[in-house]
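The instructor's notes for this session suggest beginning with a concrete chain rather than abstract definitions. Hand out the sequence below and ask the class to guess, before any prediction is shown, which regions might be ordered.
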Amino acid sequence: MRFIIAVLGLGLAFGAALLSTAFAESGNILATFAFASFALIVAGVVGITTVPYLARRVVATRVRDVLDYDITKEGVFYIVLTLVIGIAALNTGNNLLFLVVAAMLAAVLVSGIASWLNINNVELEVVLPGQVFAGRHVLARLNLHVRRRFLPLFSASIVAPKVKKAKVRWVWHRAMFEFPKQTTERKPWIRWPDIALERVSQAPPPPHIFRDRVYFPYIPPGESGYADVDIFFNKRGRFVQNGFGLQTRFPFSFLVKTRILPLTREVIVYPSVEHTDEFFEVLPMITGEFETYMCGRGYDLYRIREYEPEDSARHVDWKSTAKSGSLKVREFTREDERKLRVVFDNPGPGTVSDQPYERAVGLAASLAWHFAGEHTELSFAASGYEGGPDLYHFLEYLALVTPKAGASIIDQLRVTDDYNLVLTSRPRGSIPTELWQTSYFIFMNDEIFMNDERIRTSNGLSGVSLQK
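After discussion, reveal the predicted structure:
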Protein backbone atom coordinates (compact mmCIF):
# COMPACT_ATOMS: atom_id res chain seq x y z
CA MET A 1 0.00 0.00 0.00
CA ARG A 2 2.80 2.41 0.82
CA PHE A 3 4.53 1.56 -2.44
CA ILE A 4 1.35 2.25 -4.46
CA ILE A 5 0.80 5.54 -2.63
CA ALA A 6 4.44 6.50 -3.29
CA VAL A 7 4.10 5.75 -7.01
CA LEU A 8 0.91 7.80 -7.24
CA GLY A 9 2.50 10.68 -5.32
CA LEU A 10 5.58 10.71 -7.53
CA GLY A 11 3.36 10.58 -10.63
CA LEU A 12 1.42 13.56 -9.33
CA ALA A 13 4.67 15.42 -8.63
CA PHE A 14 5.94 14.62 -12.13
CA GLY A 15 2.71 15.97 -13.67
CA ALA A 16 2.99 19.15 -11.61
CA ALA A 17 6.61 19.59 -12.77
CA LEU A 18 5.57 19.26 -16.41
CA LEU A 19 2.83 21.86 -15.89
CA SER A 20 5.30 24.24 -14.24
CA THR A 21 7.58 23.88 -17.27
CA ALA A 22 4.70 24.60 -19.62
CA PHE A 23 3.64 27.69 -17.65
CA ALA A 24 7.27 28.89 -17.55
CA GLU A 25 7.47 28.75 -21.32
CA SER A 26 4.20 30.72 -21.60
CA GLY A 27 5.50 33.39 -19.21
CA ASN A 28 3.06 32.76 -16.31
CA ILE A 29 5.41 33.17 -13.36
CA LEU A 30 2.80 32.69 -10.59
CA ALA A 31 1.51 29.37 -11.97
CA THR A 32 5.08 28.19 -12.58
CA PHE A 33 6.03 28.90 -8.96
CA ALA A 34 2.87 27.22 -7.60
CA PHE A 35 3.19 23.98 -9.58
CA ALA A 36 6.95 23.76 -9.04
CA SER A 37 6.51 24.19 -5.28
CA PHE A 38 3.72 21.61 -5.23
CA ALA A 39 5.93 19.09 -7.10
CA LEU A 40 8.81 19.63 -4.66
CA ILE A 41 6.56 19.28 -1.59
CA VAL A 42 4.92 16.05 -2.81
CA ALA A 43 8.27 14.52 -3.76
CA GLY A 44 9.71 15.51 -0.37
CA VAL A 45 6.79 14.00 1.55
CA VAL A 46 7.11 10.73 -0.41
CA GLY A 47 10.84 10.67 0.18
CA ILE A 48 10.54 11.25 3.92
CA THR A 49 7.60 8.96 4.71
CA THR A 50 7.92 6.07 2.25
CA VAL A 51 11.48 5.58 1.03
CA PRO A 52 13.09 4.99 4.49
CA TYR A 53 10.28 2.60 5.43
CA LEU A 54 10.74 0.53 2.27
CA ALA A 55 14.51 0.61 2.68
CA ARG A 56 14.33 -0.68 6.25
CA ARG A 57 11.78 -3.32 5.33
CA VAL A 58 13.44 -4.68 2.18
CA VAL A 59 17.11 -3.83 1.92
CA ALA A 60 18.28 -3.43 5.50
CA THR A 61 16.53 -6.54 6.80
CA ARG A 62 17.88 -8.79 4.07
CA VAL A 63 21.42 -7.45 4.36
CA ARG A 64 21.33 -7.83 8.15
CA ASP A 65 20.04 -11.41 7.91
CA VAL A 66 22.47 -12.53 5.22
CA LEU A 67 25.57 -10.66 6.42
CA ASP A 68 25.81 -11.12 10.16
CA TYR A 69 29.43 -10.84 11.27
CA ASP A 70 31.00 -11.08 14.71
CA ILE A 71 34.72 -10.57 15.16
CA THR A 72 36.62 -13.09 17.30
CA LYS A 73 39.52 -12.58 19.68
CA GLU A 74 41.86 -14.01 17.07
CA GLY A 75 40.45 -11.56 14.53
CA VAL A 76 40.99 -8.60 16.85
CA PHE A 77 44.60 -9.64 17.47
CA TYR A 78 45.18 -10.13 13.73
CA ILE A 79 43.73 -6.71 12.82
CA VAL A 80 45.76 -4.95 15.54
CA LEU A 81 48.89 -6.71 14.29
CA THR A 82 48.07 -5.65 10.71
CA LEU A 83 47.67 -2.01 11.82
CA VAL A 84 50.97 -2.08 13.69
CA ILE A 85 52.83 -3.48 10.66
CA GLY A 86 51.03 -0.98 8.39
CA ILE A 87 52.14 1.96 10.60
CA ALA A 88 55.68 0.60 10.60
CA ALA A 89 55.61 0.34 6.81
CA LEU A 90 54.44 3.95 6.47
CA ASN A 91 57.12 5.21 8.86
CA THR A 92 60.02 3.26 7.36
CA GLY A 93 58.97 3.06 3.71
CA ASN A 94 60.08 -0.58 3.63
CA ASN A 95 58.55 -2.32 0.59
CA LEU A 96 58.74 -5.71 2.28
CA LEU A 97 56.48 -4.48 5.10
CA PHE A 98 54.02 -3.14 2.49
CA LEU A 99 53.95 -6.60 0.92
CA VAL A 100 53.32 -8.19 4.32
CA VAL A 101 50.44 -5.77 5.06
CA ALA A 102 48.93 -6.43 1.63
CA ALA A 103 49.11 -10.20 2.18
CA MET A 104 47.51 -9.88 5.63
CA LEU A 105 44.65 -7.72 4.27
CA ALA A 106 44.18 -10.19 1.41
CA ALA A 107 43.85 -12.99 3.99
CA VAL A 108 40.96 -11.08 5.63
CA LEU A 109 39.27 -10.67 2.24
CA VAL A 110 39.78 -14.36 1.39
CA SER A 111 38.40 -15.32 4.80
CA GLY A 112 35.20 -13.36 4.15
CA ILE A 113 34.67 -14.78 0.67
CA ALA A 114 35.47 -18.36 1.73
CA SER A 115 33.12 -18.22 4.71
CA TRP A 116 30.31 -16.89 2.50
CA LEU A 117 30.84 -19.66 -0.04
CA ASN A 118 30.98 -22.22 2.75
CA ILE A 119 27.46 -21.52 4.07
CA ASN A 120 25.84 -20.59 0.78
CA ASN A 121 23.44 -23.03 -0.97
CA VAL A 122 22.87 -25.04 2.20
CA GLU A 123 19.36 -25.99 3.31
CA LEU A 124 18.19 -27.00 6.76
CA GLU A 125 15.44 -29.48 7.62
CA VAL A 126 14.15 -29.72 11.20
CA VAL A 127 12.25 -32.84 12.29
CA LEU A 128 10.47 -32.45 15.63
CA PRO A 129 8.58 -35.11 17.61
CA GLY A 130 4.80 -34.97 17.40
CA GLN A 131 4.15 -35.27 21.14
CA VAL A 132 6.31 -33.48 23.69
CA PHE A 133 5.75 -33.58 27.44
CA ALA A 134 7.32 -31.32 30.03
CA GLY A 135 9.92 -33.07 32.15
CA ARG A 136 10.82 -35.63 29.48
CA HIS A 137 13.81 -35.74 27.13
CA VAL A 138 12.94 -35.99 23.45
CA LEU A 139 15.05 -36.22 20.31
CA ALA A 140 14.85 -33.86 17.36
CA ARG A 141 16.79 -34.26 14.14
CA LEU A 142 18.57 -31.54 12.16
CA ASN A 143 19.34 -32.36 8.53
CA LEU A 144 21.74 -30.20 6.51
CA HIS A 145 21.57 -30.56 2.73
CA VAL A 146 24.49 -29.22 0.68
CA ARG A 147 22.96 -28.09 -2.64
CA ARG A 148 26.16 -27.58 -4.64
CA ARG A 149 28.29 -29.80 -6.83
CA PHE A 150 31.91 -29.12 -5.99
CA LEU A 151 32.40 -27.36 -2.65
CA PRO A 152 31.81 -29.35 0.57
CA LEU A 153 30.65 -27.85 3.83
CA PHE A 154 33.43 -27.35 6.40
CA SER A 155 33.10 -26.69 10.11
CA ALA A 156 29.58 -25.25 10.35
CA SER A 157 27.17 -25.07 13.29
CA ILE A 158 23.44 -24.66 13.72
CA VAL A 159 22.71 -22.09 16.42
CA ALA A 160 19.68 -20.30 17.79
CA PRO A 161 19.32 -16.72 16.54
CA LYS A 162 20.07 -13.89 18.88
CA VAL A 163 17.25 -12.98 21.24
CA LYS A 164 15.99 -9.57 20.28
CA LYS A 165 14.86 -7.14 22.90
CA ALA A 166 11.20 -6.27 23.09
CA LYS A 167 10.51 -3.38 20.76
CA VAL A 168 8.95 -0.16 21.95
CA ARG A 169 6.49 1.61 19.67
CA TRP A 170 4.92 5.04 19.87
CA VAL A 171 1.20 4.90 19.07
CA TRP A 172 -1.23 7.74 18.55
CA HIS A 173 -4.58 7.32 20.30
CA ARG A 174 -7.64 9.40 21.02
CA ALA A 175 -7.62 11.46 24.20
CA MET A 176 -9.39 14.38 25.83
CA PHE A 177 -7.75 17.73 26.40
CA GLU A 178 -8.70 19.24 29.77
CA PHE A 179 -7.72 22.56 31.31
CA PRO A 180 -7.23 22.67 34.16
CA LYS A 181 -6.90 18.99 35.07
CA GLN A 182 -10.00 17.53 36.64
CA THR A 183 -9.83 16.78 40.37
CA THR A 184 -12.30 15.82 43.05
CA GLU A 185 -12.69 19.48 43.98
CA ARG A 186 -12.92 21.19 40.60
CA LYS A 187 -14.04 20.52 37.07
CA PRO A 188 -12.09 21.49 33.96
CA TRP A 189 -13.05 24.71 32.20
CA ILE A 190 -12.14 23.45 28.75
CA ARG A 191 -12.70 19.98 27.28
CA TRP A 192 -12.29 18.97 23.65
CA PRO A 193 -11.17 15.85 21.75
CA ASP A 194 -7.45 15.44 21.32
CA ILE A 195 -4.84 12.87 20.28
CA ALA A 196 -1.94 11.69 22.41
CA LEU A 197 1.26 9.77 21.76
CA GLU A 198 1.67 6.70 23.96
CA ARG A 199 4.66 4.43 24.40
CA VAL A 200 3.69 0.77 23.94
CA SER A 201 6.03 -2.14 24.67
CA GLN A 202 5.50 -5.25 22.59
CA ALA A 203 5.13 -8.59 24.33
CA PRO A 204 8.34 -10.65 24.53
CA PRO A 205 8.59 -13.48 21.99
CA PRO A 206 7.91 -17.09 23.05
CA PRO A 207 10.93 -19.05 24.31
CA HIS A 208 13.12 -20.86 21.79
CA ILE A 209 13.09 -24.60 21.14
CA PHE A 210 16.82 -25.01 20.51
CA ARG A 211 19.42 -23.35 22.72
CA ASP A 212 22.62 -25.37 22.16
CA ARG A 213 25.06 -25.38 19.27
CA VAL A 214 24.98 -28.37 16.88
CA TYR A 215 28.29 -28.85 15.06
CA PHE A 216 28.80 -30.38 11.60
CA PRO A 217 32.53 -30.89 10.86
CA TYR A 218 32.26 -31.96 7.19
CA ILE A 219 29.53 -32.73 4.64
CA PRO A 220 30.50 -33.73 1.07
CA PRO A 221 29.06 -31.74 -1.86
CA GLY A 222 25.60 -32.83 -2.96
CA GLU A 223 25.05 -34.90 0.19
CA SER A 224 23.35 -34.46 3.55
CA GLY A 225 24.36 -34.70 7.16
CA TYR A 226 22.20 -35.07 10.24
CA ALA A 227 22.48 -34.72 13.99
CA ASP A 228 20.11 -35.86 16.73
CA VAL A 229 19.55 -33.22 19.39
CA ASP A 230 18.31 -33.94 22.89
CA ILE A 231 15.67 -31.40 23.91
CA PHE A 232 14.31 -30.95 27.40
CA PHE A 233 11.45 -28.66 28.40
CA ASN A 234 11.02 -28.00 32.09
CA LYS A 235 7.59 -26.41 31.73
CA ARG A 236 4.48 -26.57 29.58
CA GLY A 237 3.51 -24.02 26.96
CA ARG A 238 4.17 -22.88 23.43
CA PHE A 239 7.76 -22.78 22.18
CA VAL A 240 8.58 -21.10 18.86
CA GLN A 241 11.82 -21.02 16.90
CA ASN A 242 11.72 -18.07 14.49
CA GLY A 243 14.69 -18.87 12.32
CA PHE A 244 17.94 -20.77 12.70
CA GLY A 245 21.51 -19.58 12.33
CA LEU A 246 24.04 -21.39 10.12
CA GLN A 247 27.36 -20.27 11.61
CA THR A 248 30.96 -20.84 10.61
CA ARG A 249 34.49 -19.67 11.46
CA PHE A 250 35.97 -21.23 8.37
CA PRO A 251 38.72 -20.81 7.21
CA PHE A 252 40.87 -18.65 9.55
CA SER A 253 38.55 -17.97 12.52
CA PHE A 254 38.95 -14.21 12.12
CA LEU A 255 35.20 -13.68 11.85
CA VAL A 256 32.13 -15.63 12.91
CA LYS A 257 29.70 -15.39 10.04
CA THR A 258 26.06 -16.32 10.60
CA ARG A 259 23.49 -16.85 7.90
CA ILE A 260 19.91 -16.63 9.15
CA LEU A 261 17.72 -19.41 7.74
CA PRO A 262 14.07 -18.24 7.67
CA LEU A 263 12.61 -21.45 9.04
CA THR A 264 9.93 -21.30 11.74
CA ARG A 265 9.04 -24.23 13.97
CA GLU A 266 6.52 -24.42 16.80
CA VAL A 267 6.09 -27.00 19.56
CA ILE A 268 3.23 -27.35 22.03
CA VAL A 269 4.66 -28.87 25.21
CA TYR A 270 2.05 -30.84 27.13
CA PRO A 271 2.03 -30.76 30.93
CA SER A 272 4.06 -33.42 32.66
CA VAL A 273 2.22 -36.71 33.15
CA GLU A 274 4.80 -38.14 35.53
CA HIS A 275 3.34 -39.52 38.74
CA THR A 276 3.74 -36.97 41.54
CA ASP A 277 3.05 -37.22 45.27
CA GLU A 278 -0.37 -35.65 44.76
CA PHE A 279 -1.15 -38.21 42.06
CA PHE A 280 -0.30 -41.19 44.27
CA GLU A 281 -2.34 -39.77 47.15
CA VAL A 282 -5.40 -38.84 45.11
CA LEU A 283 -5.53 -41.81 42.71
CA PRO A 284 -6.54 -44.52 45.24
CA MET A 285 -9.38 -42.34 46.53
CA ILE A 286 -10.59 -41.50 43.02
CA THR A 287 -10.36 -45.12 41.92
CA GLY A 288 -12.28 -46.30 44.97
CA GLU A 289 -15.04 -43.75 44.48
CA PHE A 290 -15.21 -44.50 40.75
CA GLU A 291 -15.40 -48.26 41.26
CA THR A 292 -18.04 -47.83 43.95
CA TYR A 293 -20.09 -45.68 41.62
CA MET A 294 -19.69 -48.11 38.74
CA CYS A 295 -20.46 -51.10 40.97
CA GLY A 296 -23.77 -49.59 42.03
CA ARG A 297 -24.71 -48.95 38.43
CA GLY A 298 -22.39 -51.11 36.40
CA TYR A 299 -23.43 -54.48 37.83
CA ASP A 300 -27.05 -54.01 36.82
CA LEU A 301 -28.36 -57.11 35.12
CA TYR A 302 -28.60 -56.74 31.35
CA ARG A 303 -30.07 -60.14 30.36
CA ILE A 304 -30.09 -63.90 31.07
CA ARG A 305 -29.02 -66.04 28.13
CA GLU A 306 -27.89 -69.54 27.26
CA TYR A 307 -24.53 -70.74 28.50
CA GLU A 308 -21.64 -70.67 26.01
CA PRO A 309 -18.32 -72.55 26.35
CA GLU A 310 -16.28 -69.35 26.84
CA ASP A 311 -18.46 -68.14 29.76
CA SER A 312 -17.20 -68.30 33.34
CA ALA A 313 -18.95 -70.74 35.70
CA ARG A 314 -19.34 -68.03 38.35
CA HIS A 315 -21.82 -66.19 36.11
CA VAL A 316 -24.22 -69.16 35.97
CA ASP A 317 -27.72 -68.28 37.23
CA TRP A 318 -28.67 -71.44 39.13
CA LYS A 319 -32.28 -70.45 39.72
CA SER A 320 -32.95 -69.89 36.02
CA THR A 321 -31.03 -73.07 35.24
CA ALA A 322 -33.21 -75.11 37.65
CA LYS A 323 -36.41 -73.67 36.18
CA SER A 324 -35.50 -74.16 32.52
CA GLY A 325 -33.46 -77.36 32.81
CA SER A 326 -30.53 -75.84 30.81
CA LEU A 327 -27.55 -73.75 31.85
CA LYS A 328 -28.26 -70.02 32.00
CA VAL A 329 -25.78 -67.22 32.61
CA ARG A 330 -26.18 -63.59 33.66
CA GLU A 331 -24.81 -60.81 31.45
CA PHE A 332 -23.95 -57.44 32.99
CA THR A 333 -23.52 -53.91 31.61
CA ARG A 334 -20.44 -52.78 33.52
CA GLU A 335 -17.90 -52.94 30.71
CA ASP A 336 -20.12 -50.79 28.50
CA GLU A 337 -20.59 -48.02 31.06
CA ARG A 338 -17.16 -47.10 32.44
CA LYS A 339 -17.50 -43.42 31.59
CA LEU A 340 -15.35 -40.77 33.22
CA ARG A 341 -15.42 -37.03 32.56
CA VAL A 342 -12.42 -34.92 33.58
CA VAL A 343 -13.49 -31.36 34.35
CA PHE A 344 -10.97 -28.51 34.72
CA ASP A 345 -12.68 -25.47 36.21
CA ASN A 346 -10.24 -22.72 35.21
CA PRO A 347 -10.10 -20.05 37.96
CA GLY A 348 -9.86 -16.34 37.39
CA PRO A 349 -6.60 -14.36 37.70
CA GLY A 350 -5.42 -14.02 41.29
CA THR A 351 -7.77 -16.71 42.63
CA VAL A 352 -5.01 -19.31 42.97
CA SER A 353 -1.29 -18.70 43.23
CA ASP A 354 1.04 -19.93 40.49
CA GLN A 355 2.42 -23.01 42.22
CA PRO A 356 -0.92 -24.64 43.15
CA TYR A 357 -2.31 -23.74 39.74
CA GLU A 358 0.55 -25.47 37.90
CA ARG A 359 0.19 -28.51 40.14
CA ALA A 360 -3.51 -28.68 39.40
CA VAL A 361 -2.84 -28.52 35.66
CA GLY A 362 -0.24 -31.27 35.97
CA LEU A 363 -2.55 -33.42 38.07
CA ALA A 364 -5.38 -33.04 35.55
CA ALA A 365 -3.04 -34.13 32.75
CA SER A 366 -1.68 -37.09 34.76
CA LEU A 367 -5.15 -38.35 35.70
CA ALA A 368 -6.41 -38.03 32.12
CA TRP A 369 -3.33 -39.89 30.84
CA HIS A 370 -3.77 -42.62 33.47
CA PHE A 371 -7.45 -43.31 32.87
CA ALA A 372 -6.97 -43.20 29.08
CA GLY A 373 -5.10 -46.50 29.44
CA GLU A 374 -7.67 -48.09 31.76
CA HIS A 375 -10.29 -48.99 29.12
CA THR A 376 -12.40 -46.06 30.26
CA GLU A 377 -14.53 -43.96 27.97
CA LEU A 378 -13.14 -40.49 28.63
CA SER A 379 -14.63 -37.10 27.99
CA PHE A 380 -13.43 -33.64 28.98
CA ALA A 381 -14.94 -30.32 29.97
CA ALA A 382 -13.27 -26.98 30.67
CA SER A 383 -13.86 -23.29 30.18
CA GLY A 384 -13.22 -22.53 26.51
CA TYR A 385 -12.41 -26.15 25.63
CA GLU A 386 -13.90 -27.41 22.37
CA GLY A 387 -11.67 -30.39 21.59
CA GLY A 388 -14.17 -33.15 22.28
CA PRO A 389 -13.15 -36.51 23.79
CA ASP A 390 -9.69 -36.60 22.18
CA LEU A 391 -7.02 -36.92 24.87
CA TYR A 392 -4.34 -34.95 23.02
CA HIS A 393 -6.70 -32.06 22.34
CA PHE A 394 -7.32 -31.84 26.08
CA LEU A 395 -3.57 -32.03 26.81
CA GLU A 396 -3.00 -29.22 24.31
CA TYR A 397 -5.64 -27.16 26.10
CA LEU A 398 -3.88 -27.77 29.42
CA ALA A 399 -0.54 -26.88 27.84
CA LEU A 400 -1.73 -23.39 26.92
CA VAL A 401 -4.29 -22.65 29.62
CA THR A 402 -3.87 -19.61 31.88
CA PRO A 403 -6.13 -18.21 34.61
CA LYS A 404 -9.00 -16.42 32.93
CA ALA A 405 -12.03 -14.65 34.28
CA GLY A 406 -15.39 -15.96 33.18
CA ALA A 407 -18.28 -18.25 34.05
CA SER A 408 -17.44 -21.41 35.94
CA ILE A 409 -17.74 -24.63 33.96
CA ILE A 410 -19.36 -26.30 36.99
CA ASP A 411 -22.52 -24.24 36.49
CA GLN A 412 -22.82 -25.73 33.00
CA LEU A 413 -22.44 -29.36 34.06
CA ARG A 414 -25.47 -31.60 33.98
CA VAL A 415 -25.94 -34.99 35.61
CA THR A 416 -25.26 -37.70 33.01
CA ASP A 417 -24.07 -41.29 32.95
CA ASP A 418 -20.48 -40.05 33.33
CA TYR A 419 -18.65 -39.96 36.63
CA ASN A 420 -17.09 -36.49 37.04
CA LEU A 421 -13.54 -35.83 38.20
CA VAL A 422 -13.53 -32.08 38.90
CA LEU A 423 -10.56 -29.80 39.61
CA THR A 424 -11.81 -26.46 40.88
CA SER A 425 -11.05 -23.52 43.15
CA ARG A 426 -14.65 -22.69 43.97
CA PRO A 427 -15.80 -22.69 47.58
CA ARG A 428 -17.27 -25.96 48.65
CA GLY A 429 -20.65 -24.50 49.50
CA SER A 430 -21.17 -23.06 46.01
CA ILE A 431 -21.10 -26.45 44.26
CA PRO A 432 -24.53 -27.62 42.98
CA THR A 433 -26.02 -30.34 45.14
CA GLU A 434 -26.96 -32.58 42.22
CA LEU A 435 -23.26 -33.11 41.36
CA TRP A 436 -22.32 -34.46 44.77
CA GLN A 437 -23.40 -38.03 44.12
CA THR A 438 -21.65 -38.33 40.74
CA SER A 439 -18.41 -36.42 41.22
CA TYR A 440 -15.06 -36.41 42.95
CA PHE A 441 -13.70 -32.92 43.62
CA ILE A 442 -10.09 -31.74 43.88
CA PHE A 443 -9.74 -28.23 45.24
CA MET A 444 -6.82 -25.94 44.36
CA ASN A 445 -5.98 -24.63 47.83
CA ASP A 446 -3.78 -25.61 50.77
CA GLU A 447 -5.56 -28.56 52.34
CA ILE A 448 -6.87 -31.95 51.28
CA PHE A 449 -10.20 -33.15 52.61
CA MET A 450 -11.84 -36.52 52.26
CA ASN A 451 -15.44 -37.08 53.32
CA ASP A 452 -15.46 -33.98 55.57
CA GLU A 453 -12.27 -35.05 57.36
CA ARG A 454 -8.96 -33.34 56.78
CA ILE A 455 -6.31 -35.90 56.00
CA ARG A 456 -3.35 -33.78 54.94
CA THR A 457 -1.98 -30.27 54.79
CA SER A 458 -0.14 -29.90 51.50
CA ASN A 459 1.58 -27.30 49.38
CA GLY A 460 -0.78 -26.99 46.51
CA LEU A 461 -3.77 -29.26 46.06
CA SER A 462 -6.77 -30.38 48.02
CA GLY A 463 -9.39 -32.98 47.33
CA VAL A 464 -12.92 -33.46 48.54
CA SER A 465 -14.97 -36.55 47.91
CA LEU A 466 -18.63 -35.59 48.11
CA GLN A 467 -19.88 -39.02 47.12
CA LYS A 468 -21.54 -39.58 50.48
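Then share the key points. The longest helix spans residues 2-26. The longest strand covers residues 255-270.
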